[in-house]
Specification:
Layout: H1 10-24, H2 28-34, H3 38-41, E1 43-46, E2 49-52, H4 60-72, H5 75-83, E3 87-89, E4 94-95, H6 98-107, H7 114-135, E5 141-145, H8 152-160, E6 170-174, H9 179-186, E7 194-199, H10 206-221, H11 226-229, E8 230-234, H12 237-242, E9 247-250, H13 267-294, H14 301-315, E10 320-326, H15 333-345, E11 363-366, H16 377-382, E12 389-394, H17 405-421, E13 442-447, H18 453-474, H19 485-500, H20 508-520
Parallel strand pairs: 5-6, 5-7, 7-8, 8-9, 10-11, 10-12, 12-13
Antiparallel strand pairs: 1-2, 2-13, 3-4
Helix pairs in contact: 1-4, 4-14, 6-7, 6-13, 7-13, 8-13, 13-18, 14-18, 15-18
The structure holds 6-O-phosphono-beta-D-fructofuranose (F6P).
Length: 525
């Protein structure tokens, strides 16, 4: 692989020259006055949605250079590698097969590569298992245990697709090591009527194994054999077998954890919406994969969004991005995106290990609208720094209550407008206090219809590819996550110290906290 440093590309240097002006002098209001077709020029259509990028602090010269940067950083080649299932994760010498898998699965033909054919067969096995669970009248509750990518995607999809559930079974997701999470769930279930799904790609994640231990203990107390009531999902089936579990579904080892929902880890979602619904979810994501693969870069939604992030983070010095889904069922979307984007692009070294000399992945946060309006929107409108906001809304609601959906959409559109336009305090008002500076950027994603399985699939794939695009432009590896390892290692050490009282080698603060914690909790290893 050719090692690329974006700072040495002509496009990066051109963008640096442009940045001063756009950070200081560019005014969205003037831009709209000067370009009567700005909305048309800076909005694109993608499967299931319109993406309006016109209220951003950019213009043709910037977009042109960002597109040039994408080319100079080899995006077209890297995109083909990703979509063909070739190696893109160089620190782990692996592919990242999420898109290749769903493209292969939805095409209906047997993939040429045996490994991909096996992945497709594993996905079919999961869908068959989902139908078996759905048909089992003894299962009243399904408890999915996993964490990070092994829970966030399923949790989001279960919530987002509630009107599409085709089962009476209740489905819960437990992720936290904090026992309150599992205890609250178990309190709603009966051991004879509960099926557990334990999802862990590595089969070694402490949180998931501890929750599984507690769940199997709960079954055993009622005389139930856990191997009858637990389905394990992992890329390490040998390890799962050692525990005596007999229902094991395989997920690909070269599918990144944050893309797990496209694998057997999607089982709780398939139980909820059925195999037919899950295929629609996959079809929506594959439609976005095709858009990403085939649409010219200048009209390619994930490409433009990914490059926008590069522009804001590296050139406009905006370290954060706010996501405001104006859809109650997308209220976990910010949490899902935090893993997708921050675990992927929270990096400060390039592929070859060189430290970058520029900002990379942004901090991402948000809350569903309109709730967020009554919390942090004050800061967005009048706070000391500008943060780009992303509105996500669906044209159609799926409830029968009049008087809600149109006002909801009106609020989303008005917030984007207010951020851009701002206003000056009028006569009788309080200057300063009632001034809105405006010129604050936002992007608007409007789903054509309702938040259906296929629309959700397209939305998730859009964000996945966007994250990949910015990673390529930054020259970083978006598919590893070494940054999570140190904390896990140290937690093992600290846990041991709870038991043996050893404080040797600890800094004073850590030792002090440990002593305080030991004094108040009952030690449990
Ligand atoms: O700690 C981060 C991480 O490795 C994620 O990337 C992953 O989604 C999560 O942990 C769970 O991992 P596993 O599926 O192996 O239990």
């Amino acid at each position: 692989m050719v090692e690329l440093n974006p700072q040495t590309t002509p496009a990066w240097q051109a963008l640096e020259r442009l940045a001063g002006h756009y950070a200081r002098d560019f005014d969205l209001r003037q831009a709209f006055a000067a370009e009567p077709k700005r909305f048309q020029q800076h909005s694109v259509r993608a499967p299931h949605m319109l993406v309006d990028l016109s209220k951003n602090l950019w213009d043709e010269p910037v977009v042109e250079q960002l597109l040039a940067l994408a080319i100079q950083m080899g995006l077209p080649e890297r995109r083909s590698q990703l979509l063909n299932g070739e190696i893109v994760n160089h620190t782990e010498h692996q592919a990242a097969v999420h898109a290749a898998l769903r493209l292969a699965f939805t095409s209906g033909t047997v993939p040429a590569l045996p490994a991909m054919a096996k992945n497709c067969a594993d996905l079919s096995a999961m869908l068959a298992m989902a139908e078996t669970v759905r048909a089992d009248a003894t299962v009243h509750d399904v408890v999915h245990i996993g964490i990070g990518g092994s829970s966030l995607g399923p949790e989001l999809a279960l919530q987002a697709l509630r009107p599409y559930w085709r089962t009476q079974q209740r489905i819960h997701v437990v992720s936290n090591l904090d026992g309150h999470d599992l205890a609250e769930t178990l309190a709603q279930c009966h051991p004879a009527h509960t099926l557990f799904i334990a999802a862990s790609k590595s089969c070694s994640t402490f949180e998931t194994l501890q929750n599984l231990r507690s769940a199997t203990g709960w079954l055993q107390q009622s005389g139930i054999n856990p191997s009858d009531r637990v389905v394990a999902i992992t890329a390490n089936p040998d390890v799962a077998q050692v525990t005596g579990l007999k229902h094991i579904l395989r997920m690909p080892a070269d599918l990144g954890g944050r893309y797990s929902v496209w694998s057997a880890v999607g089982l709780p979602v398939a139980v909820a919406i059925g195999a037919v619904g899950f295929r629609e979810l996959l079809a929506g994501s594959a439609a976005m994969d095709s858009h990403f693969a085939q649409t010219p870069l200048a009209h390619n939604a994930p490409v433009l969004l990914g490059l926008l992030d590069v522009w804001y983070s590296s050139f406009m010095r905006m370290p954060m991005r706010c996501v405001a889904p104006y859809h109650h069922r997308l209220r976990r979307f910010p949490a899902y995106l935090q893993q997708l984007d921050m675990e992927s692009n929270g990096k400060t070294v390039r592929q070859n290990g060189d430290v970058v000399g520029y900002s990379t992945g942004m901090a991402l946060w948000g809350e569903a609208g309109t709730n967020g309006q009554h919390a942090f929107f004050q800061w967005l409108h009048q706070g000391p720094q500008r943060t780009p906001v992303e509105f996500v809304a669906a044209s159609q609601a799926e409830h029968a209550l009049p008087g809600h959906h149109t006002p909801l959409l009106a609020n989303a559109v008005a917030q984007a407008q207010a951020l851009m336009l701002g206003s000056k305090a009028g006569h009788g008002q309080l200057p300063g206090h009632q001034d809105f500076p405006g010129n604050r950027p936002s992007t608007f994603l409007l789903l054509d219809g309702a938040l259906s399985p296929s629309a959700l699939g397209a939305l998730l794939a859009l964000y996945e590819h966007r994250t990949f695009v910015s990673g390529v432009a930054w020259g970083i590896n978006s598919f590893d996550q070494w940054g999570v390892e140190l904390g896990k290692e140290l937690a093992k050490d600290i846990l041991q110290r709870f038991a043996d009282g050893n404080r040797q080698g600890l800094d004073e603060s850590t030792a002090g906290l440990l002593n305080a914690a030991c004094a108040t909790v009952e030690t449990q290893l």
